[in-house]
Amino acid sequence: MRTEEINISRIKRNLTRIPFEKLPEVNNFIESVLTHSSGHKEKLEGLWEGIGFERISDLDGSIREIRRLSEKALEDRIAKWNI
Where are the domains of the chain? Predict the structure, then answer.
């Protein structure tokens, strides 16, 4: 078996052992590695094409961070309602 095949087999085996709640974190890491290693740029179409989002190096990561911050802000506002 070649080294690449052995590594892929190990990764697949390890993925099956990761706790379910950690899978999104692992996927984010994999996407980050793929984005930075291949020089991949998002191909935006339609309404989003040509308005500047192409310059954001990690568009998916930026969107995830904005969603996380928005969710936290909403939770904080709800907590202040004293319900």
Answer: 3-79
